[in-house]
Amino acid sequence: MVKAAINRGPSPEPPPGTRILVVGGGYVGMYTALRLQRELKAQLRDGRVGITVVAPDPYMTYQPFLPEAAAGSISPRHVVVPLRRVLDRCHIVIGEARSIDHAARTATVTTLATEEEEGTGPVEIAYDELVLAPGSISRTLPVPGLADYAIGFKTVEEAIGLRNHVIEQMDIASSTRDPAVRDAALTFVFVGGGYAGVEALAELEDMARYTARYYHNIKPEDLKWILVEASDRILPEVGEEMGQYAIRELRGRNIDVRLETRLDSCENRVAVLSDGARFPTRTVVWTAGVKPAPILAATDLPLTERGRLKCTAKLQVEGVEQAWAAGDAAAVPDVTSAEKDKECAPNAQHAVRQAKVLAENIAASVNGKPLREYAHKYVGSVASLGLHKGVAHVYGRKLKGYPAWFMHRAYHLSRVPTFNRKARVLAEWTLAGLFKREIVSLGSLEHPRAEFELAAGGGPAKPGPKPGPEPGSGPGPKGPGGKEN
């Protein structure tokens, strides 16, 4: 048996025995490691097995709650789950896997300390069993101005930054004497009609409409919200009928829903659409899909045409021993479908359930027991359209309005990990029903040293609130500790 080890670095030496390396701390990574802690409890205790988790952040983000965090219904700290707390029997390495040589059973990882250690280079981690679950990243297109002016909606930092930004734009609109600046500040363009785009827009529009009552010169109808979708429907997961209902609901709230339309440019703070419309705006939110994490292309493992790992129904990487995958990174056959070569959808519903089977199969492999196939029939979807509004298509039943919204909350409350988080989220929802919304913008959190730099002689302060992202200052590629998995 090969004993894995960390070949360089000050990290504690892992225990001897079979080493399981989990790359990724998202749904699959965290849930798989959490389940392995239970399945291999005895082996972990006596050192026959060791689990190392490599993740760019020290927490797992429960992404379905990001829209509510942006709207202020949930505190940001309750949307994330600290890995070190829940994975207390695992060795946590905060860093990013840059390449994987599975033939040699080694992964090359850069950590937060890599740049500080001169002349040493990345860490090499050896392993016996590999779980590759890096998730996905935002799929962008070569749209002029996108990298300079747009913001994504995939991380908790982006969600809270967007909330601060929306309120700051209302502050700008309230105080400016220039009608053009006011109009641009109150125009919000969202690109992508999937879950992320629709739920984020709906929750933020709900929050901004409520916030407008506290401004003497801004009315809810002054705010312009635009949803741009390249296909002929939104929320395809909930079905055509419920998707049409969602469009009617959004348009009834004065939201401009544009189907079969693309964003051609957002240079110079002007959103130019493929239908010829032009909107001066200080806010462009990009939620137009995801793509596999770049680490997959830096491995010697087989990939599909779309860049996902070829997997069997038992969640093993096809044709490779001791390599496993699930979630967004894996192309897993859907054994419940009558269609040939149908794959499981890359969504949270499958990811959480795959993680359970994945952990059980790894434990079975370590213990010399037979493996089982992943089989779960997709039961439907739920989506929030703001406070007390939603759509759902579950077990063939179609719900809308308050029942769908309640089901959305109940389902995700049941799925968020740890009793601690469930209790905190439920308590916040209860308090939110008893008291008024919080409408505070904490934009200074993005530049926490600005005040001290000024006091230390860093230069004169600019008057008034910051006008949102400037060219080149929006969320870009992040290093370890700042990138969502």
TrEMBL record:
- The question of whether Oxidoreductase is a record keyword is answered with yes
Domain named FAD/NAD(P)-binding: residues: 19-355
Q: What class of enzyme is it?
A: oxidoreductase
Question: Which UniProt keywords are given for this protein, alphabetically ordered?
Answer: FAD, Flavoprotein, NAD, Oxidoreductase
Q: Which GO terms describe its molecular function?
A: oxidoreductase activity
**SUPFAM superfamilies reported in the protein's UniProt record:** FAD/NAD(P)-binding domain (SSF51905)
Q: Which InterPro entries match?
A: FAD/NAD-bd_sf, FAD/NAD-binding_dom, NDH-2
Q: What is its EC number?
A: 1.6.5.-
| Ranges of Pro residues composition bias in the record | 462-478
Renumbered to this chain, region (Disordered) spans 451-485
**PANTHER family given for it?**
NADH DEHYDROGENASE (PTHR43706), NADH DEHYDROGENASE-LIKE PROTEIN RV1812C (PTHR43706:SF45)
Protein family according to the UniProt entry = Belongs to the NADH dehydrogenase family.
This one is known as NAD(P)/FAD-dependent oxidoreductase
Organism listed in the record: Streptomyces noboritoensis
